[in-house]
Amino acid sequence: MADIPLPILSLLALTPIFVVFLFLVFLRWPAKKAMPVAYGVTALMAVLVWETPIVQIGGASVHGVVTAINILFIVFGAILLLNTLKASGDIHAIRQGFIDISPDRRVQAIIIAWLFGSFIEGAAGFGTPAAIAAPLLVAIGFPAMAAVVVALIIQSTPVSFGAVGTPILVGVNTGLSDHPQVQALLSALNMSHDAYLHLIGATVALFHGIIGTFIPLILVALMTRFFGKNKSFREGLEIWKFALLAGLAFTVPYILLGRFLGPEFPSLLGSLVGLVIVVSVVKAGIFQPERPWNFPDEDDWEDEWKGEFHVDSHDAEKKIERNHILKAWSPYVIVALFLVLTRTVSSIKGLVTAPEVTIVWADIFGSGITTKSQPLYLPGFLFIVTVTFCYGIFRMNGDQIKASWKESAHTIVGAASALLFAVPMVQVFLNSQSATLDQMPLVLAEGVSALFGSLWPFIAPTIGALGAFIAGSNTISNMMFSLFQFGMAEKIGATPHIIVALQAVGGAAGNMICVHNVVAASATVGLLGKEGSVIRKTLIPMAWYALFAGALGLVFLEGLGLNLGTLVLLGIAGVITWLISQGARQNL
Predict the structure, then answer these.
(1) In whole angstroms, what is the distance from residue 9 CA to residue 51 CA?
(2) What mean pLDDT do residues 149-169 have?
(3) Distance CA 463, CA 146 (A)
(4) Which secondary-structure segment (H or E) carries 361?
(5) What is the pLDDT of residues 397-408, one digit of tens each?
(6) Given this model, what pLDDT does residue 313 score?
(7) Less Cβ crowding at N or C end of the chain, within 10 Å?
(8) Number of neighbours of residue 318 by Cβ within 10 angstroms
(9) Who's near 44: CB < 8 A, 6+ residues apart?
């Protein structure tokens, strides 16, 4: 099939992605029905067009199943922790704690999703922030779909430095290391590989910092538009001062940490700095709305918004003592502590990732594909360990413990049917290379590059986002496309580290819409079957993020002037100015 023209091959490579969007997003099929079809189409494309060996498809499918089980383990742990708090009755103390900070749902969304979620991303990655933030938001009174959408929108800015910098230190590093083309540039620059990687990370932090400053504003505007009684952007934009402050409280230290300390720290420490600043600002009453905003009464919620996870709010208004609130929060403190320790302390990390506790299947079916699982390192294990502490902390009885496990098991079964096809479909797509053709994503990228030429910097983030949508991972997207992006930069005479940085930024933004994250986050709140509706909503901020990044890339490379980058940035500045003016008018 090597004689097929590149444009035709690129369209064929696009087929699996088109199928996902057709059935999941446009026809609104539930993921458990759409993803088996997508898997079948992808496998057929690999066999009939790419001539991928059957053993390779089998190996990729097995690797996908193992990866799906890892994801399900994480989701199950997150659900179990929340159901444990629900069964013990201590979920009401968490609800009260946030009401004490602020009764305004917009403020709560920014604190829980944007700041606490970014901290969890910095520590763990793996889609863990959405699995924690979404059910936590539901527990304090958010509609299930609003909670999932909010939790996914923040899966952007912190992602490039998630899991203590893994997308850069593993993703970009693996993609570029030991390649002659890269080594030649480093020799010409008289720069070490580590220094070049640090430069890429600092550039990623700068791009993300500029764009991410506006994420809290976009988040609350979309939340009030989709889930408010009046379906109004203005109600979200009303707190524009606070939203921008919350953005800057995270992104300023984030940029500085990326520049001076390296990829391990921007999300992990930047979010903590932001959390301290923002909570202090809220308690001081600075930039706080006069009228707290809330969702409509639950009886008025649209059916699409509702999930299966419910918290009885009959005693939610009862006064709860501060010590009880702190005790109720202790499981999340324990989880955060475990995540940081297992990711940053080398001796502890060595214990939970040792060969003795790692399950490996090498060269599956002779395909050359290897899969592995490290159960003790996965956040799901840490959730379950924390749950066992909860039994003592909250003095739970056998009936409460049984109820929490039963409800969690019921929820995870629904997610399994979707993920056990979604992830193998992705792995077949990624491992579709044959003796005559590169894997489908690279063929697709080659076809796109032929269309854009010198405007490649503008489209580079979209390629990164496409990679993350397909692979469910910024790290895998960077592994797959970093060298390709580097080569495109040299081909058009652009600065390679800027193009590679745009790849990483786009790869982070793609996490907002990737099927893995959407299914996992939806499962934690019992929203399965409505994944297409979630993606339609998160497509808006994802597209805005990629557009903004592409325009910044062109301006960084070409300067301000009469070019596409400047024109798009002026348009974005105009939209943001208009949005802020609408928020200011709402306050009048």
Answers:
(1) 13
(2) 93
(3) 28
(4) strand 359-361
(5) 999 999 999 988
(6) 53
(7) C
(8) 9
(9) none
